[in-house]
Amino acid sequence: MSAADRDKRRPSRILMYMYILLLLVSVVIAGRIVYIQYFWQPDPKYVHHFRPQKMRTVIEPRRGTVIDANGKLLAISTPLYNIYMDCYVQKEANDANGAKGAEAEREWVRKAGRLSKGLSEVLASQGRDSSYYMNRIMAGRARKMQHRSIVMRIDHGTLLKLQELPLFDEPAHKGGLIVETEERRLYPYGTLARRVIGYVKNNKDTTARHIGIEGKYDHVLHGKAGVEWLRRTDKRKLIQDTDSTFVAAEDGIDVRTTLDIDMQDIADRALRENMANEGHINGGCAVIMDVKTGAIKAMVNLQRDSSGHFSEVFNMAAGWPSEPGSVFKSVTLMTLLEDGKISLDTEIPTCHGHMRDMPDIPRDEYIMNYERRTGRSTIPVVEGFKISSNYVFRRLVKDHYGSSPEEFTSRLHSYNLDANFEFELAERGSGKPRIPDPHESGWTMSDLVSSAIGYSVRVTPLQVVTFYNAIANKGKMMKPYIVEQTERNGEAEKKFGPVLLNSICSKATADTLARALSMVTLEGTAKRLKNAKCTVAGKTGTARMHLSPQERKGSRDPYSDNRGRKKHQATFVGFFPADAPKYTAIVVTYTGLLEPGINVYGGQTPAATFKDIVDGIWAYETDWSTHIKPEGRMPDMEGPYINTSRTEGSPVPDLHGLGLKDAMYAIENNGYKCTYSGSGHVVSQSPAAGSAAKKGGTIKIVLK
Amino acid sequence: MEGKGKLTAKAVMKSIWSGDILLLLRVDKLLPYILFLFALGWINIFMNYKIEQTMVQVEKNQKILKEYKIYHAQKTYEFVKMNRISTVENMLEEAGAEVSAPEKPAFIIKDK
Lengths: 704, 112
Hints:
The structure holds two protein chains of two kinds.
Chain A: H1 3-38, H2 44-50, E1 54-59, E2 66-67, E3 73-85, H3 91-95, H4 98-122, H5 130-142, E4 148-154, H6 156-162, H7 172-175, E5 177-186, H8 194-197, H9 212-216, H10 218-221, E6 226-232, E7 238-240, E8 254-257, H11 261-276, E9 281-290, E10 296-304, E11 310-311, H12 316-319, H13 329-338, E12 347-349, H14 365-374, E13 378-380, H15 381-386, H16 390-401, H17 405-414, H18 445-452, H19 461-472, E14 476-478, E15 483-488, E16 491-495, E17 500-503, H20 507-523, E18 537-544, H21 549-552, E19 568-576, E20 583-591, H22 605-620, E21 627-628, H23 660-669, E22 673-678, E23 682-686, E24 698-703
Parallel strand pairs in A: 2-8, 22-24
Antiparallel strand pairs in A: 1-6, 2-3, 3-4, 3-5, 6-7, 8-15, 9-10, 9-20, 10-11, 12-13, 14-17, 15-16, 18-19, 19-20, 23-24
Helix pairs in contact in A: 4-5, 11-22, 13-16, 13-20, 16-18
Chain B: H1 9-18, H2 21-24, H3 31-82, H4 85-94, E1 108-109
């Protein structure tokens, strides 16, 4: 082979070697692939680093909201944020970086100072100054604390403000901000209707599940958790792994109550204010019911705590059966009227208020006063009802049902006075509602005559108000209910009311009773309600309360202790307006042990509270508004102008460019009167903007 | 491999050695399909990448949406809190206003 041929073949040989090399490499690679694919087992320690990371996460459902009858929010779930700080962030790197690191550390500390100042401003409500936060951060840095709490449970708006502060506006590995989310249940009306709405800390809270709507409707409100798998992308971002199971969370269903939170507010305030003035009153409740439907519009339950403040700790209205006292006389009267035994005008002998055939029963002072006042020896039933005479009702029941007490008690059962109405919020109180049974051992005539005046029977305030509501509703008894419907996205899923229980009396009897109840507020024991903003028909009641054996301290009288002290329950129950009832309400208060001689009456605090409730509701109720025609001349406003704010007396505002409505608002809000001409926007004004005008002076504006 | 005989193991080994195995297998005729396959593969990878990017964006948007929902819920809570009758009355009192709770029902202008 010549040298030229050798030179010619040289490149092809080089290529051949390269080719062989590549071929061998490819064979090795192919072999490696096969080996790795089928035979190689990685070290378990490192396996998770080689495989795509998947995380199973539970998707928490959103807890349903609780709203009132008008759609106002009563309970809502939203996350709150807990803020922590990695105080040691970048410290090691700075320490290891010599002079440059020392400068970086000084810069970090300067930023921490600005952060502390910002924290004290943004979190002003915490009442801590910047030195508190600075000391906390620097102490944490010195002690290498990487999870130091800064503030707990802040809202989203505050979080956004914090994220704009120095250090917190930097990535977490530089600034050290750690944000942890915590779902919380919020109640915009605070503790208002707390016992009705209930309370949960969050959707996982199981501690208060039996209380209020939150407890009773937890199975509806809670929703159903979902599951999803997440994986990391190559850029370490988390995304849903669509190859794995995904179960969507089912959010909780909203619960629409029958409550009117404005009425609740009115009733709550009325009861608090009236009870606050009476130190001997330990608590009370108020219920407002819609006459036509039986829907509960408000339910207040207040109990005085050791510090003297009132709070909602027990649903007395639905869970506290007790002897109701004279408010039960309407039950007796209804029975007598319905059975045709009497009319309101039936006269009965007064006998000086003494039941001669039952000498153990004390004399009725009210009858003695009646005799002295009128000089008469008989009393019409309606008069006995007005003055709430125990004698009259004992006498009537004994005379008409003494020989057949079952007739009377079976009537009481037909009024559902011992029914629980399947009421959602009934709590276990002190005993059960009770109507005495003539077949029970120990039954005496005393039980019958006691029942007539509201003793020997035990009923809850809710049962009493439901009975009176039936009178207002012409004899039709509606089932009380507090949940209107469950709904999803505003559409009803399940409706609950209204439900007619039964007709407990004829329309004529109901009308007669309503007339008698109106007399009580006009001339009887509840005259305080005569001046209410709309007419009220109702009944007062006062009862001694059963004492526990501990309270009696050895006394044999179940109503008094060894020093003769008693507890009293005072009630007013009625409906309004008396001629066309729209709402029925009850107010019950109870006292602690009172010294002998001190009494409370339904015509006092309960009637005063009732009046405040009526007046409050009347002012807000649009059904009772006066309707005026759309055309006509608006009368000129007279009398003192209304000062709407403390801006009164301020300089004349600049009105240029404003529309008439805005200009008038600005003028009147600053304590001036306004005259105007033209239409459009303000082009000139007199006096000029910024000048001082006389208090109540007139500002002229021209609009174009 | 016209005129080069049968496709035996020896011929294959020889063609591998000489570097013309692809020609022996007449792969040149399949080139459009191979390119198509590559194109499909590339599209598959590209689509997966894009899907992943979209899903990252979806997650980001969901996070933003969730934050807005939280913001909305908290603002609603704040407004409802201020809407309470007694709160409004207290605020008016604090502002020194003489305006107070209504004492009688509002007049309503009737529609025609």
